Amino acid sequence: MAVEAKAGDLALLIGPGGKPFLVRLEPGGRLHTHRGVVAHEDCIGRPWGTAVRSHRGDVFWLLEPSMEELIRYLPRQTQILYPKDIGYILLKLSVRPGRLVLEAGTGSGGLTLALAHAVWPLGRVVTYEVRPEMQALARRNLERVGLAEMVTWRIRDIAEGFEETEADALFLDLPEPWAYLPQAAAALRSGGFFGAILPTANQVIRLLEALPAHGFGFIETVEILLRPYHTVGWRFRPADRMVAHTGFLIFARRLQEAPGPEALTLESEALSGEPPAG
Q1: What domains are there in the chain, each with its CATH number?
Q2: Which of 12, 37, 75, 80 has its CA at a distance of 20 to 30 angstroms from the CA of residue 200?
Q3: Which helix (H) or strand (E) is 51 found in, with range?
Q4: What pLDDT, in 10s, does the model give residues 201-242?
């Protein structure tokens, strides 16, 4: 049986030329575009994946938005983390329902949204930001998708420390994460997951040098590249543009004792996907 769009649902309407519009369907609502007006009533009660028409007859496809699309089309004032990075972050930090996850800073809320979705319904995300106007935007973005209640919003400089302890995971999206490693270590449980993103190599080097001194081991640094392809059969080939360097991702584990040389890094052999010996 087909699943139908309901009043109150977020819908992705893709118009001529592939232009997307993210709207919440409401009785009496209208989407005004340069290709005509689409009445929300023409969408409500229709199965996802069907075509609706504007008042001028142009076709718009009614789709249920994916989490990737929700993040990509968020209103934002700063560059958000790309979905290609967020997916790996969720896996590396072992984010799942019931987890307590800390984040600083909030930015426009792209990662916050993904974290809240992943810990729902039993977990909690606590996000720290020093700019009230930025966190207000992020909060509106999560309210729009119904996830704001999964998040505790804190306007606070984490130099003063995190209010939480025994967190399962912590992610820093800050220019100088090495300056906050004592606070991060105090907030994470033993064995907890640490992550950060940085745009330049010199920043990464400073963080790598600082992590072991604060009880972090099994350090990994990766860069994720996403190469799209033209999907028309007769001209299938790589697209002219790709999402290449967006940031270096650094991951580590909070250890009970100071890490020795054997526990500092995850070498390339350990990241190859080969099963452990024994």
Answers
A1: 10-65 (3.10.330.20), 69-271 (3.40.50.150)
A2: 75
A3: strand 50-53
A4: 999 999 999 999 999 999 999 999 999 999 989 989 999 988
